[in-house]
Every structure is written in C-alpha cells, then in structure tokens.
Design brief:
- It catalyses: N(6)-[(R)-dihydrolipoyl]-L-lysyl-[lipoyl-carrier protein] + a hydroperoxide = N(6)-[(R)-lipoyl]-L-lysyl-[lipoyl-carrier protein] + an alcohol + H2O.
- GO terms for molecular function: disulfide oxidoreductase activity; hydroperoxide reductase activity; peroxiredoxin activity.
- This is Alkyl hydroperoxide reductase AhpD.
- Antioxidant protein with alkyl hydroperoxidase activity. Required for the reduction of the AhpC active site cysteine residues and for the regeneration of the AhpC enzyme activity.
- With 174 residues, the chain is mainly alpha-helical.
- It has a single domain, classed as AhpD-like, CATH 1.20.1290.
- It has nine helices and no strands.
- Helix 2 crosses helix 9 and helix 3 crosses helix 5.
- The longest helix is centred in the middle third of the chain and has 27 residues.
- The mean pLDDT is 95.
Amino acid sequence: MSIDNLKGSLPEYAKDLKLNLGTLARGTELNEQQLWGTFLATAAATRNEAVFSEIADEAKGHLSDEAFEAALGAATIMAMNNVAYRAKEFLGGDYAQVKMGLRMNIIANSGVDRADFELWSLAVSTINGCEACTSAHDNTVRGEGLTKEQVFEAVKIAATMQGVAQAVAIEAAR
C-alpha cells in the first residue's frame, strides 16, 4: 500500500494528479513529519477509504505513533470546526460573538510541534472550504516561523489529494 499504488490506479485523464503526487512526495519544502502528516490528514479529509488506506499505510513508515494520531486528530477536529466556523460566517453578524462552546483540546495538546499540527489543520481546512480556519491557521504557522512556500506546499498536497480522491471515486463508480 502506497502512493505508488494510488498513482498506478489513476486513469489517463488524471495523469497530472499522478505526476503531482510523485513530485509532492519528494518535496523538500516540508520536513518529513510535516510532509507525511499533511498527506495523512488530507487523505482522511477526502473521506475516500481507498485513498486514506494507501496513504495511511505509507505514512506509518514516516511518522511516529504520536504524529500519526495527531494528523488524524487534525482531520477530525477540523471536520467539526470547519462546519461550525463556516456556519457562523453564513449566519452573519448576530452570530459573530456567539461562544463556540465545542471542545477543541487537541489543538493545544496534540503531542507534536504546534506548527506541524496547525499546518495539518490548515491543509484540512482548505479541503473543507473554511476560509476563516484556513486564514487563522495560516497566521499561526507563519507566526511559528513557517514560510509561505511551506504553507502553500501543504495546500498543494491538499488540492492533489482531493483530486486523487475524486478520480478514485469516479473510477470506482464506472
């Protein structure tokens, strides 16, 4: 199970995704934990079982148990937060000051470097389409010292993983 398996499963119309997967997996903008945590968190965020399975199996060889769990934590907490924060925005001004009231302890106690967890949260938030969360996590990771190139590398991984999940779903339905 691996990125190579995913690349091999992609049809000709998704050749660009195949090329992007290979390039991103060899990227040098992110350290190994940031890279594989981003792949894992975004694979989980695609909600595609085949994509998640392939990435998770390979990520286990690159991440500590703590980082593996934290990446999954980023995917799940952002699934909740992205819905709640988008809803506050949709509902408008009357809701801006309403207390969120949801537990989010993992954000402060993820078990990994804060910048890494926040980067994974940013990448998941891009898949989930939450502008407020994407921007907030960008501010945090930039404050933690990550560059815009590192941030956008995570965004490119998220975008590619979403495209791969789409292609895999299309092929499964054919």
